[in-house]
UniProtKB/TrEMBL annotation, chain A:
Keyword Amino-acid biosynthesis: yes
Protein name, as recorded: Acetolactate synthase small subunit
Keyword field contains Amino-acid biosynthesis: yes
InterPro entries: Acetalactate_synth_ssu, Acetolactate_synth/TF_NikR_C, Acetolactate_synth_ssu_C, ACT-like_dom_sf, ACT_dom, AHAS_ACT, AHAS_small-like_ACT
SUPFAM superfamilies: ACT-like (SSF55021)
UniProtKB/TrEMBL annotation, chain B:
CC per GO annotation: acetolactate synthase complex
Biased composition (Basic and acidic residues): 1-17
Record organism: Marinococcus halophilus
EC number in record: 2.2.1.6
Taxonomic path: Bacteria, Bacillati, Bacillota, Bacilli, Bacillales
Pfam families hit by this protein: TPP_enzyme_C (PF02775), TPP_enzyme_M (PF00205), TPP_enzyme_N (PF02776)
GO biological process entries: isoleucine biosynthetic process; L-valine biosynthetic process
Name by which UniProt lists this protein: Acetolactate synthase
Entry keyword annotation includes Flavoprotein: yes
GO molecular function: acetolactate synthase activity; flavin adenine dinucleotide binding; magnesium ion binding; thiamine pyrophosphate binding
Enzyme class: transferase
Reactions it catalyzes: 2 pyruvate + H(+) = (2S)-2-acetolactate + CO2
Domain Thiamine pyrophosphate enzyme central residue range list: 209-343
Length: 172, 575
């Protein structure tokens, strides 16, 4: 199962190394990691999207993260009310004749063209992962020349309306 | 202990809030942490610290290889319960302690390791004797630090000791660049470290304790698996009280030996690959398994599919990540073993109806005791271990490496008290036992310390004979010499059709001559009738001894759970 986990960590040198090293040596399967500063310059926020086989695997990821001295707080927010966003830049092969068509196509996604070349355009899209993937699917037939994605960063919503799944963990 | 070393005189604590060098801060901080012994080896990047050691006279034990120093620090920590401190230089000095750090990590030993580092101005330039020790030790330390400024140093040292010794103990590395140890700054030592991301749980959840108490009352076939967590928590008295109250048999892990008295009628001995039949069968047939401070290591569990198939599993551990890591756990108790057992004893649950179970367990013990064939022309290593047990009245501190001799020691030396058994469990480090014995002797100067070693493992760190010679340290080295890598040879015999690839040692040094080269008493025994006499002489001698005991080279360790098998599939349970 795919889970979204956020962690606040001390903003010290090597903390990223500690976390990625932990994932690698414990054979945890990660889809993406994002990291950036928070409102407190001494604290960074990390968002992981991980693939785990079961609840026990998920518990291990959370507990091993918690064990790190530089990790302040870990939370699995998958089942909570969250805003999750990623940004993707997609360079699509296109002649001048197709540019209008592509503009129409990306409009409902509120994506924008941020660079235009003779044989390609670069599109920027932000949103949750399903939305980004849907746009990529639509653009694929035109020929995707290059693509870069930031990975998901996520936040709990101000108004919490959890979808009420009971979770069992000895930590939380 | 008859040592020629200067006793610690460097206890002149300087006042706080004084300007001093980084290396001076380090020694001052060590004094505040009540460190009486440092194990180490000097070198370029750590010179300022060694100058401070020289000037303060704090006791420093000079090993002859950094690996010797770190294993000695481990032995010291294991026996004393205090953090072992090891100081080495940068680059090769630091990489030479990596094995010991990994060993301490997997066996949860509190260590503070100070590694010298090149000056901050040249870090990252591949400078002379530079190694990225922070990166190298990240996965094998509980935490590690690099002091980038001298102002940070006191805080880092305090945090290092705090992290190493609290919660689940472990090794912490402090990387100390040379310029930082020279630079001067204000020394201020806080007692309470500020570590919001590190808050170990000691007090268990009351609800889980109640659930466990109920399970105890309901259980008809309960068993306890006692691990090293009992030793780290100092929970032996509470465990004994609980067991006697509840009449639950106790199987021990390799590292947990001594946590519960080995000669107690409810002691089943060691569980696992070379454990006793009774311990393994009890785990297999139990309906309630209470794991206290063990981590369900694969050498204990065997094939997980067959592990404790009928049991409700309760697991008490101070490290929440150990609970549910290997075995699905029904009653998780996160907390200190001592505290958990104290609360359990307070609840004092009604013991379950388990008389028949205890009879069954007794039957297993009677019918399938440990066994070996006596009366051949060779010295039997099992017999040798039994004689060591006898001649030391079971009261010695025993250290070992890894392998056959280790298993025989674990099987035949019945530890009645905690912290007398020093062995490399999780990492299985050859060369551990001898330097660990040196550290153990420093922790307990008046006790008999016996290093039971294989001939191969001894050859990995035997240069530390220098320490025995220099300090006249009365460690007894007993070589269970089968002229081979015994356990490797055993596996090649059993699983590789006797293709003994590189496991036989046809050429060996004359260990007696070698001991004598260090001015140490050496004995060689080849006849079983001599064993008792030589042991007696050695143990009565107040000084170091090396005994080269030639044992039956083809002896195997039994009983055994072959790889991939379950507890109920033990082999070699009877002659």
């Amino acid at each position: 199962m795919r889970r979204t986990i956020t962690a606040t960590v001390n903003n010290t040198t090597g903390v990223m190394n500690r976390i990625t090293g932990l994932f690698a040596r414990r054979h945890f399967n990660i889809e993406s990691i994002t990291v950036g500063m928070t409102e407190n310059p001494e604290v960074s926020r990390m968002t992981f999207v991980v693939n785990v086989s079961d609840q026990r695997g998920l518990d291990q990821v959370i507990k091993q993260l918690n064990k790190q001295v530089d990790v302040l707080k870990v939370r699995d927010i998958t089942d909570e009310a969250i805003v999750a966003r990623e940004l993707a830049m997609i360079k699509v092969m296109t002649g001048s004749g197709q540019r209008g068509e592509i503009s129409d196509l990306i409009a409902p996604f509120r994506a924008t063209v941020i660079d235009v070349g003779r044989e390609s355009v670069t599109i920027q899209v932000t949103g949750d992962t399903p939305k980004v993937e849907a746009l990529i699917d639509l653009l694929r037939p035109y020929g995707i020349k290059e693509m870069a994605r930031t990975g998901v960063t996520a936040f709990q919503r101000a108004t919490k309306k959890s979808n009420d799944q009971t979770r069992y963990s000895i930590i939380n | 202990m008859n040592t020629r070393v200067r006793e610690v005189k460097g206890r002149e604590l300087k006042d706080e809030n004084q300007e001093m060098s980084g290396s001076s801060m380090l020694i001052q901080a060590l004094a505040r942490e009540n460190v009486d012994t440092i194990f180490g080896y000097p070198g370029g990047a750590i010179l300022p610290t060694y100058d401070e050691i020289y000037r303060t006279g704090i006791r420093h034990i000079l090993s002859r290889h950094e690996q010797g120093a770190i294993h000695a620090a481990e032995g010291y920590a294991r026996v004393s319960g205090k953090p072992g401190v090891c100081v080495v230089t940068s680059g090769p000095g630091a990489t030479n302690v990596v094995t010991g750090i990994a060993d301490a990590m997997i066996d949860s030993l509190p260590l503070v390791v100070v590694t010298g580092q090149v000056a901050t101005s040249v870090i990252g330039t591949d400078a002379f004797q530079e190694a990225d020790i922070l990166g190298i030790t990240m996965p094998i330390t509980k935490h590690n630090f690099q002091a980038r400024t001298v102002e940070d140093l006191p805080r880092i040292i305090r945090e290092a000791f705090h992290i190493a010794t609290t919660g689940r103990p472990g090794p912490v590395v402090i990387d100390l660049p040379k310029d930082v140890s020279i630079a001067s700054g204000m020394f201020h030592y806080d007692d309470e470290p500020n570590l919001p991301g590190y808050q170990p749980t000691y007090t268990p959840n009351k609800l889980q304790i109640r659930k466990l108490a109920e399970a105890v009352t309901k259980a008809k076939r309960p068993v306890i698996l006692s691990g090293a967590g009992i030793l780290h928590a100092g929970a032996s008295p509470e465990l004994l009280e609980f067991v006697e109250q509840q009449q639950i048999p106790v199987a021990s892990t390799l590292l947990g030996l001594g946590g519960f008295p080995g000669t107690h009628e409810l002691a089943l001995g060691m569980a696992g690959m070379h454990g006793t039949y009774a311990a393994n069968m009890a785990l297999h047939e139990a309906d309630l398994l209470i794991n206290i401070g063990a981590r369900f290591d694969d050498r204990v569990t065997g094939n997980l599919e067959h592990f404790a198939p009928q049991a409700t599993v309760a697991h008490i551990d101070v490290d929440p990540a150990e609970i549910g890591k290997i075995i699905e756990t029904h009653i998780p108790v996160v907390g200190d073993a001592k505290e958990a057992l104290r609360l359990l004893n307070e609840v004092n649950p009604q013991p379950g109806e388990s008389v028949r179970w205890r009879m069954k367990v007794d039957e297993w013990q009677q019918e399938f005791p440990l066994w070996y064939k006596e009366g051949s022309e060779y010295i039997k290593p099992q017999k040798l271990t039994e004689l060591v047990y006898e001649k030391t009245n079971g009261e010695a501190i025993i250290t070992t490496d890894v392998g056959q001799h280790q298993m025989w020691a674990a099987q035949y030396y019945k530890f009645d008290h905690p912290n007398a058994w020093v062995t490399s469990g999780g990492l299985g480090t050859m060369g551990f036992g001898f330097p660990a014995a040196i550290g153990a002797q420093f922790a307990e100067p008046d006790r008999q310390v016996v290093a039971i070693l294989g001939d191969a493992g001894f050859q990995m760190t035997m240069q530390e004979l220098s320490i025995l010679q220099e300090l006249n340290l009365p460690v007894k080295v007993l070589l269970v010499n089968n002229a081979s890598l015994g356990m490797v040879r055993q596996w090649q015999q059993l699983f590789y059709e006797e293709r003994y690839s590189n496991s036989l040692f046809p050429i060996q040094p004359d260990f007696v001559k070698m001991a004598e080269a260090y001015d140490i008493k050496g004995y060689k025994i080849t006849d079983e009738n001599e064993v008792a006499g030589v042991l007696e002489e050695a143990f009565n001698y107040n000084g170091p001894v090396v005994i080269d005991c030639r044992v039956h080279e083809e002896e195997n360790v039994y009983p055994m759970i072959a790889p991939g098998q379950g507890h109920h599939q033990m082999e070699g349970v009877k002659p």
